[in-house]
What we know:
By secondary structure, the protein is α+β, with helices and mostly antiparallel strands. It folds into four domains: about 1-35, no CATH class; about 40-140, Nuclear Transport Factor 2, Chain: A (Roll), CATH 3.10.450.50; about 165-310, Penicillin-binding protein 2a (Domain 2), CATH 3.90.1310; about 350-580 and about 600-640, 3-Layer(aba) Sandwich (Beta-lactamase). It has 20 helices and 26 strands. The strands form nine sheets. The chain has a five-stranded antiparallel β-sheet with strand order 19-18-26-25-24, with helices on both faces. A four-stranded antiparallel β-sheet has the order 3-4-5-6, covered by helices on one side. Strands 9, 10, 11 and 12 form a four-stranded antiparallel β-sheet that branches. The termini are far apart.
Amino acid sequence: MRSRTGFSSRRGATRRVTTAGGVTVLLLAPLLAGCSSDPTDDVRNAAQAFLDDWTAGKTDAAAALTTDAAATSALLEQTGTDLPDATLAAELGKVQVTDAKATVGWQATWDLAAAPDWSYPASLSLTEGDDGWQVVAAPTVVHPALGEGQHLQLARSLPERAPITDATGAPLFTETEVVNVGVDPAQVTDLPALAAGLAAATGVSAAEITADVQAAPAGQFVPVITLRRPDFEAIRAQVFDLPGAVFPTSTRPLAPTSRFGLALLGRVGDATAEVIDAATGDDGKPLYAAGDTLGLSGLQRADQQQLAGTPGFTVSVVSTDESIQDTGEVIDTVAPVPGTPVQTPLVPALQNAADAAVAGQSLATHLVVVRPGTGGILAVSSNEAANPSNALSGQFPPGSSMKTMTATALLTAGTVTPDTPVPCPGTTTVEGREFENEDQFDLGTVPLREAFAESCNTTFIQQALTLPDDALSAAASSYGVGSDWQLPVRVFSGAVPATSTGTTKAADAIGQGEVLMSPVQLALVAAGIASGTPAPPVEVVGGAPAGAAPTGPSAAVLDQLRPMMRQVVLTGTATGLADRGEVYGKTGTAEFGSNTPPDAHGWFMGYQLGGPQGDIAFAVLVEAGQSSSVAVTVADAFLGALS
């Protein structure tokens, strides 16, 4: 048994013995109890000590246990460079000893960064010297195939990204040429002028461009913006001759247009640190790395792992002499595992029609289309002026679109029917606060259906105040408003308080006060009215349900409400849609802000039966549109594009 001090149990030991006569003699002692002439344990311990230090990152300490500390230290450091951010686990195997030489088998498992583990059998040669057993310094310490003058080369690879598809299974993203507008710092002659020119053409701030160029390492390409080829051609004349500007091309999976279903589908691009940190495996480690093309938003990000698949890698041994241009010899490879497609309910014809309709507006405009009975989201559209996320997660007062739910509460209570005569004065006062109709129009006493079609605020305030305080909330909930939808891409399901009283309750009844909606949720309400079976929203076909199906109002209530919504189109506030087939709906103008007079959003929510794309429900929001008429105009353009 060999100790770390070099004394060997194989040769025994001496001890002093004093005889009865006081004479001290030296005796050669036999081997001590528990020791053995078998050096296997010594060899195993020496190999284990070396591997323990190496796996702990103590390369100098590990190298000191070899026959050439300097060479081994350089070897292990180089391996750390070759396999960046990887950690090694080692498991000892069989030990073989022949005289003063030994071999120890071991299993190496490298936990590679953003790649599967790399595992292989290896062996250490050891020799016995004056200081005990030492690992023989050699490249094979790292890998059996590694030779003198060579090092490892790791290449990660991602599979081709799986597609997001439409309702028919056709891919929505295809590999598309893009131009990467950027800067080569070595060619820059006047950075302020270059930054100003690029900023004017691309919209990226000159200060940001300047800072990025100044912070970039020498010789590194500095990206500014990535554009589809047609978009680049539109600015080519402004940027092409700027000294320092460069325009390498590449391909990227892109939707048909830059705005196509953007809020839902999202974008694909170069991975950001935030995206990498968010995509982790079961062990909490990132699955992907800088330089990977990944989903940056929407379903492309939410379903990242399903779409991107699992990276693979190839390990080669190559010469350390770069002048040789050694292509290397592959010693191991793990193929990447392809992802699987994500199917959406999107219908391109509807999406294109919605995109064309919102593109005609200069104000931020959104249009969401839903399939009655299924909750499938068929189109999500926002124009260039809009924040696309507002189509799904925006929180806006719905204005008189809320009257569909207020009418539901009134009809459910049974206190009125569509034919019930109700007053529609120009103004009404609640607890000292005056509410009015648009331009204080006064219809006198009219059937409830007419007050609904003409969007009489005062009627619905007066009638709603007769209801229990939670009636509006209950009616809205029956359509799914306020549900905690569990979806890959978050949606705002709306909010209608159950405890409002007085002036707040009055304002809630006409979609002001504390009531908030998103375009997608209003489209879902319209879909529930159309079908009679409200459904949770569906973003991915075959995915987990977003939640329990809303209960819905009774069939009797819906049978009364639908003709009221039809009247809005035939004789009321949305007659601009009267020639677009069997269309039902409700307009809304929702005041917001502190201006005098206040600004207002424009809404239209409704549905079309038996149209070219079957039954569809939809909601239009024009932010700060000031009137519902602009939303009706967008709805008209949308339905017209389908015919």
